[in-house]
Automatic annotation (TrEMBL):
This is Ferredoxin. NCBIfam families: di_4Fe-4S_YfhL. Signal peptide: none annotated. Pfam families: Fer4_7.
Length: 83
């Protein structure tokens, strides 16, 4: 599953630089995660880096983008091939 940032986000700027897939960007009011680029850090780390640094715990799984670990791995491989 891709991750999402909820409206509890305080715009602290710590999550964006931690994302190895450049999936996080500043939105109109809060940071947003591009589900096409989010792999939950599969392929890079054992856990999502944005979640590990978020001081307000506002980055849950996005229920509208269900994906298995295998699907996330394939997405990671595709992203790496594009770069």
């Amino acid at each position: 599953m891709a991750l999402m940032i909820t409206d509890e986000c305080i715009n602290c700027d710590v999550c964006e630089p931690e994302c190895p897939n450049n999936a996080i960007s500043a939105g109109d009011e809060i940071y947003v995660i591009d589900p096409k680029r989010c792999t939950e850090c599969v392929g890079h780390y054992d856990e999502p880096q944005c979640v590990s640094v978020c001081p307000v715990d506002c980055i849950p799984l996005d229920p509208t983008h269900p994906e298995t670990k295998d699907q996330l791995q394939l997405k990671y491989e595709k992203l790496m091939a594009e770069s």
